[in-house]
Design a protein that fits this description.
The chain is built from nine helices and 15 strands. It is α/β, with parallel strands linked by helices. Strands 3, 4, 5, 6, 7, 14 and 15 form a seven-stranded mixed β-sheet that branches. The longest helix has 13 residues. Keywords: Oxidoreductase. It holds the Pfam family ADH_zinc_N. InterPro entries: ADH-like_C, ADH_N_2, ER, GroES-like_sf, MDR_fam, NAD(P)-bd_dom_sf.
């Protein structure tokens, strides 16, 4: 079997040299364990934080050891009755082609209930749940709201915008990093307006797209985007602080937002969240978003990179904006 290990910790932007591919004998499952042949693994922005040796809500990766993260595959050997050979399972041992896991730590899923297995890592998985919980519970979205989402053509952002549209937003605005992504948001995903944040200051482009202000901001980016949103938010506006990807590879503290004091007079509610603490919302989320998927009302775009050896490049590409929708790696 093969696995990708952390070779060294990056300072600033990571490079391919921070990763190494290792070959080792395929292990046999012990009592209560299963051997899984991985089919898809996820690469996610939060993994950048795990490359640093700092305390966080999730443990750092260790130098010389395999990275980990969400993956889906098939059980090829089993010492656990409840997870038989042939079962399709979701688990946390990505970044390798074969994985031995405790049966108690895998979730059996129905491959026929999704358009592709990888959808369990994207629209129908933690990515979709992040969008659902962040928009509906954290930002307290209501029909009639004007919603702005950054990172809008990415995995989480594209779902946020579509849920807002389907739940009756007055107007959905997205920002993304290329003309093609802006076109995709408006033409394919039904956003009312979108802009390329690289074209002109976000503050100005957001004001033009939302002359009457916004009610909800779903923040995937932080920095200038958050500052612009605070400026455009209406009284009692709500912000879901989901991510701050603009600063993940920076080596100094962010200079923006500089206008946080506006939150006082506008009586804004800015609230952070970690999706892992909202798993109780999974049943409602799967029922509602799964229904839209079956009805063809929501799109689940993915960018698929082939092969374990290309996983570091997929991860680096994610931070450079090379993905539209969820970035996944196809294995085997
Ligand atoms: P995406 O699919 O959105 O991929 C990341 C995207 O970020 C890129 O495609 C790129 O798109 C954009 N980006 C990169 N650098 C910048 C920058 N400097 N300014 C603006 N955009 C940038 O990833 P996810 O959907 O998986 O994650 C989106 C956000 O949500 C991240 O911040 C992540 O950390 C966070 N997250 C938080 C969770 C939680 O529990 N709180 C759970 C899951 C994700 P572009 O071409 O548009 O620049």
């Amino acid at each position: 079997m093969q696995e990708i290990r952390l070779a060294s910790r990056p300072t600033g932007w990571p490079t391919a040299d921070n990763f190494e591919l290792a070959e080792l004998p395929t292990p046999a499952p012990g009592p209560g364990q299963v051997l899984i042949r991985n089919r898809f693994m996820s690469v996610d922005p939060y993994m950048r934080g795990r490359m640093n040796d700092v305390e966080s809500y999730v443990a750092p990766f260790e130098i010389g050891k395999a990275l980990d993260g969400a993956a889906i595959g098939e059980v090829v050997a089993s010492n656990a009755e409840q997870v038989p050979v042939g079962a399709t399972v979701l688990h946390g041992l990505g970044w390798r082609d074969f994985a031995v896991a405790d049966a108690a730590h895998v979730r059996v899923v129905d491959p026929a209930a999704a358009p592709t297995l990888s959808a369990y890592l994207g629209l129908l998985g933690m990515t979709g749940l992040t969008a659902y919980v962040g928009l509906l519970d954290i930002a307290q979205f209501r029909a009639g709201d004007v919603v702005f989402v950054s990172g809008a053509a990415g995995a989480v952002g594209s779902v946020v915008g579509q849920i807002a549209r389907l739940r009756g937003a007055k107007r959905v605005i997205g920002s993304a990093g290329s003309a093609e992504k802006v076109r995709h948001l408006v033409d394919d995903l039904g956003f009312d307006a979108a802009f390329n944040y690289k074209d002109a200051p976000v503050r100005q482009q957001l004001r033009d797209a939302a002359p009457d202000g916004i009610d909800v901001y779903f923040d995937n980016v932080g920095g200038d985007h958050l500052e612009a949103a605070i400026g455009s938010l209406n009284k009692f506006g709500r912000v879901a602080l989901c991510g701050a990807i603009a600063q993940y590879n920076e080596t100094s503290a962010p200079a923006t937002p500089r206008n946080l004091a506006l939150a006082i007079g506008k009586e804004l509610n800015l609230r952070g969240f970690i999706v892992g603490n909202h798993r109780d919302r999974m049943p409602e989320f799967v029922a509602e978003v799964g229904g839209w998927l079956r009805a063809g009302e929501i799109e689940s775009r993915e960018t698929v990179v082939e092969g374990l050896a290309a996983a570091p490049e997929a991860f680096l590409g994610l931070m450079r904006g090379e993905n539209t929708g969820k970035m996944v790696v196809k294995l085997g």
